[in-house]
Amino acid sequence: MRLRLLALLLLAVPVLAACGGDDEGDSSAGKCTYVEEGSAAKEAKLPPSEPKSADTLTVATNRGDMKLTLTPDAAPCTVNSFVSLAEQGYFDGTKCHRLVPGFVLQCGDPSATGAGGPGYSFDDELSGDETYPAGTLAMANAGPDTNGSQFFIVLADAQLPPSYTVFGKVDDAGLAVARAIEKDGNGPDGVAPAKDVVIESVS
User: Fold this and answer.
1) What is the pTM of this model?
2) What CATH number does residue 139 fall under?
3) How large is the greatest C-alpha to C-alpha distance in the chain, in angstroms?
4) What does the alpha-carbon distance between residue 104 and residue 178 come to, in Å, rounded to a whole number?
5) Is 120 inside any structural domain?
């Protein structure tokens, strides 16, 4: 089964079965909770419960670099998880497995199947006022509180319900890289980008 962005988008995209963590990851108390479950697509340690803050990261790919500006104040546990996985090299050598032209580029699954994750999940960090303009960086999920490692970059202003934790944005140059990938379209399976998009490092 595949992790999805939105059930109403595209063909019926199967869902990755997963359970959520404790209330809001306890982020209101300055702590984050990550729940171990399932098997990891690539070995990963649980992130620390004390959130690490980071404001910028660079995703280096074989198609060009994407600089990310993160929002630890709005999504501390999401940023903490993403930074922890980046520091562990979890994303290194992985392919962006899903492209929906005019909508999103999705990455973060080492298995490149749409069903892989880090072997843990954590809760959404939502205000209910989320919007998804072009360049938004957000978590893919399989329903409430099922975040793992998969994330997406919004390619064009998207009308989505506020159900996907926003944890940053991609700079203009990085969005141009994503849109160049978009122009190539999809491969034979109609899901993956036509040309491989490989994350070389996140630092």
Assistant:
1) 0.87
2) 2.40.100.10
3) 47
4) 9
5) yes
Residue 3 belongs to some domain of the structure: no
The contacts of residue 189 (CB under 8 Å, 6+ apart) are none
On average, the pLDDT of the chain sits at 88
Strand partners, 186: 193
**pLDDT tens digits, residue range 97-148?**
999 999 999 999 999 999 999 999 999 999 999 999 999 999 999 999 999 9
Assigned domain for 44 exists: no
- Report if residue 41 sits inside a domain: no
Start-end of H helices in the chain: 76-87, 172-183
Q: What residues have CB less than 8 Å from 69, skipping those under 6 apart?
A: 55, 56, 168, 169, 171
Query: What range does the domain containing 59 cover?
Result: 55-202
Number of domain units in the chain: 1
Q: Each residue of 25-38: b (16+ CB within 10 Å) or e?
A: bebeeeebbbbebb
Q: Tell me the mean pLDDT in the region 81-100.
A: 98
